[in-house]
């Protein structure tokens, strides 16, 4: 496969004629060839019309057909080998080793959803038997979930594979039976095209309707707004900035038919250091914190951007160890010059706030777009009265909040806006305080973790990667893990439908061998 | 209990001082005493603050505590006896017999949700075991669902019991562990206060935090908007007009923290008469249609407002039988003078549309606010090119669309906007056409029913009372049945949480005896 600079619309490769975009190597600021043609409204129209036409036929495919499609995409991505990893590394500044891990995650997500589709649990099959002798008679009622319809997917800058063209959102939507129209992220256009070609070929090889997948290139916010406004689109998945997510939410809400938006936006992932744990393990926790802070140059939505602890000697020890570790951390290339610029502006703004001091920074940057990790310190009173401090600075920046007592820690927790994660470092002797903190954190975060760091997001059944606004636009959903498929489904109930017309998941004899809810009981029958 | 004209804010009864409202007997246009004091912003603030304060304590109650609370409300409603039925009948014009059935539904909804809470299936308990030897190690991950937070409930005009103060939305939210702030519907203020007193007393008797329930009286749209805008409110449930629902959706989307709105709005519940069934049972179907059309004076969100059939002798026979039945139908009192007025305006507007003829009407009205059922006829070409015809006229009005062929029937189906229900009258010989219609109807409706009429909405596990916009604001949810509780929940994942802090639903040994998803398998362990 080769990068051509074209969009992929159904089974066609289409050169956009509304301008040119180029990929840039953030480590050198050099332009990477070839250039990419920018699409326009007609391309959106074409992709969305194909998606709409594909809709009924694609959602009528069997579980096995969709599972094999997802697995073929996974295989195709692996087969791209160094071509993909090399290009992604050039476009994002992320090291090859990190991208290989991310590719593994991407592939395992696709395979997990293949398994989810085969299992069929996501269908939510529910049957209530007819009660003909009851007064009034109860009809036969059977429910399963069906695909919402075509989904617009906006990839993330920071995961060029795992949250991009064939990333978690795409895999979940395709698994659900929804065609997807993906807008390529400008920061990794070549990577996007390579992966897009894999999906396009897999769709053809599996004889799927061509509209099941399109990949568009657009260079402006209005392009994305037009995609979200298209009547064929029935849901939106987005990972990115709060500003970008809010704009798509507004557009979706203003449609004549409003549609759900799943936007994973920004948060600061607070880490609470409970007193006993801190007194026993200040240095260990401090080192772990700096490791977590600087992972992927801090460009993770689960980056620990806030640390809350009681003032005193253990916190001094934590800060001292963290500072030592920080001083040894090399500056790392950020994803784009724009992201690097925003990071510099963010830490400058934070550093200028009255009541904030800079604990320290990592090694100075020696290359373009490389970021020095930065840790700030403040007290709870300043945090509670300064609005800006709850906002994310995307990159390796964090703020330590020193509290006078446990009540101030609880007040800081209560003051937080919605988060993807909240972490407690705690020992058995901290349980009493943890019990007070836990109900607050439950209201604030989608995932609560103990004695770890939030960076890694396991792809499994019990994962929640979502949380109250503004961490995500819809706290009822998860962007990672098996339940991510639920975002693209809606229930349909069939009342007294003849057996000959009944969807397979709901037929007598349970031919798909699903766990089903039958008259309120969970049974394999 | 007696009607005092006061609001119920927590455990207090508060006389609103922002004006006066009175209940009106729609059958006589007489005012019913006493008058009601209208609340203002300070009352909203008080109710929402109490709800927020109650939030953590209420959601920490055991399943058994919440189940008993719901059952006590059911018992209390029954104990109101003729006081409640009599007042509700005076306020709404609905016959006592219908209200007794509705009371039964209300009580059974409360009891169903008590059972749902005891079952615990709604918690979605999901466990993924730690894999400490995997590289990288997998942490222990456990997910359950928790209450979203305080819910604003707006009752419906047409179900003064089943979709009002202690109706389906309230029962589902209270079951989920959410405090509720209910805005009483102006059309049945006395009924609302009586039921509100039952909930208030049940909350006290069960030692629940007082903010778990408040009942407010407001006389303007801005009052509702202010309630939805309050930062303590985390979700909205509404049943009513499209205009009202859209206004609340806009308000919720514009909050600094947007929140979900579950608005059940308007639709026309198409009924497709497939050719063979119509040729065999035209008269029977025609009689059934008029029964369905005139039930509760047509004031049901599942009223059959559209009939689609092939032109020809069987349709002529259907129309003739329907007309005979219609002529025998007495005019029935509508819920309010305003609703009656809107009905008259709606049928006048429809009748004036070019290409529409009036098939016939029911008996003339002899009392104030009584509605004559009205059936119109048109052809598919007119329907497909006249926008207004897809909109609901609330009341006993329906439109028959004569199609030249099956393709026109399919085109009419494709032309429809979102619906709560879609019905097919069909015989075995109609299966071929039904197979073409079914995928379209799946995209258009939340419930698809065969050889019945959509009016009755069973309260069970497999029911879906919802559908694509504008039938409801959120097609992923149901307002009726066990799954209605899902609207008020969000998932939280715990990573490596110590056993001593683990929520009961997720503990080792499964003390709540739940069906849980463990490592991807559904098990009772």
Automatic annotation (TrEMBL), chains A, B:
Task: Give UniProt keywords alphabetically.
Answer: Oxidoreductase
Q: Does the keyword Oxidoreductase apply?
A: yes
The family database entries (Gene3D superfamilies) matched by this protein are listed as:
Aldehyde Dehydrogenase, Chain A, domain 1, Aldehyde Dehydrogenase, Chain A, domain 2
CDD domains, per this entry? Answer: ALDH_KGSADH
Instruction: List residues of the Aldehyde dehydrogenase domain.
Output: 21-467
PANTHER family listed in its UniProt record: ALDEHYDE DEHYDROGENASE-RELATED, SUCCINATE-SEMIALDEHYDE DEHYDROGENASE, MITOCHONDRIAL
Q: Under what name is this protein listed?
A: Aldehyde dehydrogenase (NADP(+))
């Amino acid at each position: 496969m080769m990068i051509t600079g074209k969009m992929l619309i159904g089974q066609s490769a289409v050169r956009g004629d509304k301008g040119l975009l180029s990929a840039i190597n953030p480590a050198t600021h050099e332009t990477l060839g070839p250039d990419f043609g920018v699409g326009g409204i007609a391309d959106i129209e074409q992709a969305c019309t194909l998606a709409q036409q594909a809709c009924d036929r694609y959602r009528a495919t069997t579980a096995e057909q969709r599972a094999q499609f997802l697995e073929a995409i996974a295989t195709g991505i692996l087969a791209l080998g160094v071509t993909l990893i090399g290009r992604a590394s050039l476009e994002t500044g992320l090291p090859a080793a990190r991208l290989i891990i991310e590719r593994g995650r991407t592939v395992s997500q696709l395979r997990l959803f293949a398994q989810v589709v085969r299992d069929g649990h996501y269908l939510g099959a529910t049957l209530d038997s007819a009660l003909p002798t009851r007064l009034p008679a109860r009809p036969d009622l059977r429910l399963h979930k069906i695909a919402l319809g075509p989904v617009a997917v906006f990839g993330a800058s920071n995961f060029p594979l795992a949250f991009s063209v064939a990333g978690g959102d795409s895999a979940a939507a395709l698994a659900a039976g929804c065609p997807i129209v993906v807008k390529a992220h400008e920061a990794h256009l070549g990577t996007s095209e390579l992966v897009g070609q894999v999906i396009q070929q897999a769709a053809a090889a599996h004889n799927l309707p061509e509209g099941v997948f399109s990949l568009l290139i657009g260079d402006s916010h209005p392009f994305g707004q037009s995609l979200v406004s298209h009547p064929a689109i029935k849901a939106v998945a987005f990972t990115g900035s709060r500003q970008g997510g809010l704009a798509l939410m507004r557009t979706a809400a203003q449609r004549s038919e409003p549609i759900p938006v799943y936007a994973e936006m920004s948060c600061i992932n607070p880490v609470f250091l409970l007193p006993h744990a801190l007194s026993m393990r200040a240095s260990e926790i401090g080192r772990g914190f700096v490791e977590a802070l600087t992972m992927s140059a801090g460009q993770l939505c689960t980056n620990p951007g806030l640390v809350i602890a009681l003032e005193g000697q253990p916190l001094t020890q934590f800060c001292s160890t963290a500072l030592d570790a920080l001083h040894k951390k090399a500056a790392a290339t950020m994803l784009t010059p724009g992201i690097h610029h925003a990071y510099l502006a963010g830490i400058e703004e934070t550093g200028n706030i009255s009541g904030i001091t800079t604990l320290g920074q990592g090694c100075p940057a020696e290359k373009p777009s490389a970021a020095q990790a930065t840790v700030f310190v403040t007290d709870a009173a300043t945090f509670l009265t300064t609005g800006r401090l709850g906002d994310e600075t995307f990159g390796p920046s964090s703020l330590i909040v020193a509290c006078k007592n446990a009540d101030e820690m609880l007040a800081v927790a209560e003051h937080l806006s919605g988060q993807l994660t909240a972490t407690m470092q705690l020992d058995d002797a901290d349980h009493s305080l943890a019990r007070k903190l836990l109900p607050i954190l439950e209201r604030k975060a989608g995932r609560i973790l103990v004695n770890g760091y939030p960076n890694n997001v396991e792809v499994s059944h019990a994962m929640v990667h979502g949380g109250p606004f503004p961490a995500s636009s819809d706290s009822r959903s998860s962007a990672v893990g098996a339940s991510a498929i639920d975002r693209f489904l809606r229930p349909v109930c069939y009342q007294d439908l003849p057996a000959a017309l009944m969807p397979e998941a709901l037929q007598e004899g349970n031919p798909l061998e699903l766990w089903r809810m039958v008259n309120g009981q969970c049974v394999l029958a």
